[in-house]
Task: structure prediction
Amino acid sequence: MSRPPPPPVPRRQRLDPAIFHLPVERMREGYYSDKYFVRARDVLLKDRHRPCVTMQVFGKAHAFLGGIDEAIAILKLCGERWEELQVSALYDGDEIKPWETVLLIEGPYDAFANLETLYLGVLARRTRVGTNTRRVVDAATPKQVMFFPARHDHWLVQTGDGYAAHIAGAIGVSTDAQASWWGSEGVGTVPHALIAAYGGDTVLAARKFAQWMPETIGLITLVDFDNDCVGTSLNVARALGSRLYGVRLDTSETMVDKSVIPEMGTFKPTGVNPQLVWNVRRALDKEGFRSVKIVVSGGFTVEKIRHFEEQGVPVDMYGVGSSLFQGRFDFTADVVRVEGKPCGKVGRAFRPNPRLEKVE
Result:
């Protein structure tokens, strides 16, 4: 008796192109595109030459793919006629190998020639952020990671970067824009500026935050304003009790915290270092504040997080910022077939990928 066929694997959901709020007319006219692509399209249109090409897109680094739904949205909304194109693609968050095809576009070249700059750009940007975030998340596991790079780049990139980080596994993002594509909101802490606004009194600033912010918001306060993380953590914990969710250590990399000074000599004492975290944890535990979480930030990279985790440093959450923008994750697009026949520059040939799925 033959077995029934297995049920079909459900298709993964892609983001609705409308969510990206693309400046469609500007993109379509070539305003954001390298000029040579715009002129190439103009030549084809004026010559009424419409060869059907296969455009192959790949990266050169091991990475976690980002920006693919955004790239598809550009093709759907900004091309001349989407119905003329056949597009196959991987998914956001997919792990990719060097030279692996992530996107195939087939159709008349003039229908999408002017869009290459745009879709390659979003793939490079979102893949860089997503890959770096994934590496940080893997290094920190099972600890949580807070995505804090918004202040290090232009505000326009926040929304897509936040989604790339979310797909990669970041627990929290810092702005509502970063969280908007999956219907969430930003998270954060009592900042240094609010503490300064209350005369440098961290306890008072934390009390005011607790007074005016909903209890559903976990209260995490920075405790390095006076360069005394142990003393400030204890003072805030005593004042707020169970309302305090956590303390955040953000000591400057040019400073040595007050509690660390007597212990200097066998380790790098500046910034947020393992000894400082241990000092805060032990002090909180000694006074019965074992439930208060410790968040660390300030110069954290994959390597620094691994170093902390290998030593068993009692961190509950890592805040990571500018390091998430590092590295190169460029993508390349090549015409590799014309009218179904091989036709590409030397060294570039059609590389089929069975993982690609047709885009509807």
